[in-house]
Structure formats: C-alpha cells, structure tokens
Design goal:
mainly beta, Immunoglobulin-like, 4-stranded mixed beta sheet, 4-stranded antiparallel beta sheet, 8 strands, globular, DUF3244 domain-containing protein
C-alpha cells in the first residue's frame, strides 16, 4: 500500500510540472527594463501588444507575436513622456524562429531607446 501511495504521489508531481519549453509554438517576447525608472507601458510592434508596469531590473511576461525580428518598433511610456525606437524597414531581415526572446530596453541620457536583443 505504501508503494502504491508513493507511485501515485510521484505521478501527480510528474504530471503537475510544466516548463516554458513545453510550448515552443510561436514567437514569445518579453521586455527587461534596463533603465533606472519604471516603464509604465512598452509597445513592441503592434499596438495591441503592450507590456505594462515594468520596474527597473524586472521583466514583463511573455507575449506571443505572429512575426518578430531581432529589433522592432518600440514605444516606451514613462509618465507623460514617450521614447521611441523606429526601425526604417525589415528588408533583408529574417523573422525569428519559434522560441523565447527578451528585448532588454534602456533609455539613454539623451532620450534614445537602446535595444539589447537576447535569446532565452
């Protein structure tokens, strides 16, 4: 009886564990705030895709994108200020394969958005 109980407990623990790598469908992007102030909103690409309330040194949750590149249009809102990174085009660029990625974002003293792309 004791062995049966251990077997059941092991099966419950085994099936209850999940890993983010279990769902590799799509391109998932999160934002890391590499600045010293809070990001209220960060728009990456499409307007509907918003990462919100990211404290300095912290990460947003992953959002799934249909198509993404190792750089993107970025609009960071901090209070009443907007900071924008505007790519010219994606001609010749290869879309990212399915997986998990991080856009490390920092705003320079001059107000420029600096993007640090990372594969997770």
């Amino acid at each position: 009886m004791k062995k049966f109980g251990l077997l059941i407990a092991f099966l419950i623990l085994l099936t209850g564990c999940t890993d983010r790598d279990d769902d590799l469908s799509g391109v998932k992007i999160r934002v890391k705030n590499e600045s010293s102030f809070n990001f209220d909103k960060v728009q990456v690409g499409e307007a509907a895709m918003l990462h919100t309330n990211i404290a300095p040194g912290n990460f947003s949750r992953y959002l799934e994108y249909k198509t993404a590149y190792n750089y993107a249009y970025i609009n960071i809102t901090v209070g009443d200020e907007n900071y924008i990174l505007q790519p010219i085009d994606f001609v010749g660029e290869t879309p990212l394969p399915e997986g998990f990625y991080t856009y490390g974002l920092k705003i320079s003293e001059e107000g420029e958005v600096i993007l640090n792309f990372m594969v997770d």
